[in-house]
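Checklist before submission:
- one chain only
- standard amino acids only
- sequence pasted in full

Submission:
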Amino acid sequence: MILGLFLFERFNFSYGEGKFSNATLAGLHHFYLKNCRSAFKQCNQSLVIAGHRGSAVDGQVKTQGEISETIIGNTEWGIKNAIQNKIEYIEIDLRAFKGAQNDLVLYHDSHLGKLLISSLLEDSRPQRIEDLTFDEIHDSAYRTLDPNKNRIVFFSEFLALVAGSDQKIILDLKFANLMEGTERTDAYESLIYQLNKHRIQSTRVTIFGDYRVLAAWNAFCRNRKPEDETGRLNYQLGYTVLGKHSENRFDVLIRPSRIFEKLSELHEAEAEFPILVLPVSFASHAMLSRAAKLGADVWCYGTEVNLDWESLKNRGVDGLILDQPDRNAE
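Returned file contents:
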């Protein structure tokens, strides 16, 4: 238990800034796989590969006036790279904003540290991307080596890029915990409007979120009027167990049954069982065994190390969400 607590607290698999090297964890996986092979589910099936925010782009982030190197996703270049490499799933983050006009914006963080914005806008110090207007977002770019190629992307633009392919898309709803009532409903309707406008079939769409986000999404889908054009919205769900939340770390270590209770609660009639999305540090044999008994697929995020991939695959993990998915495109 002490070792488990140490690993859960010390291994930080955040995106980009502050990322802890996975070399030690990979070594532990390799040792376990070599010496305890019978504990693993042997699997010859290929792993599902999803591009995390398209794919990674070298960039910078501004925090309290200081600029540091990091990797940035949700850029046009990263999305096009994932499309060109025929990555099976392309994951993006969605946020709502002022004057959205039936559109959303691709952006992970609520704060604006990854953006280059006009001096006038920077002087006014807006707190969140949700506070910006359409024109302000349109004139903003990511802090990448070539900002001209990485203007911030709207959801409608993303769908136009992927509409001609058969690749699947993952929509991580970052706005759902920030809104209530009609504001959140309007954002959901904007999402559905754009999917219908670009004729994206429901079988291509997976909705990601933590428990509260997906519970709110399910409630929205149940409450839509029968005469709504799209009818019932049976999109695949992905329940993301965020490693940074202390409640999740406690549950995985002490009461993992709670994670699976939530997973089962999110399962709607006539829909596929939700995918369980875990940080690699949570992908223990016990967690994967419980998921297998439920018949739930498990995807992992937080590693770019090839040794991890083989270990996780042999343990029974079904998919990986990677910052650099093109490395495994072949």
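Reviewer check: Confidence is low (pLDDT under 50) at residues 4-44.
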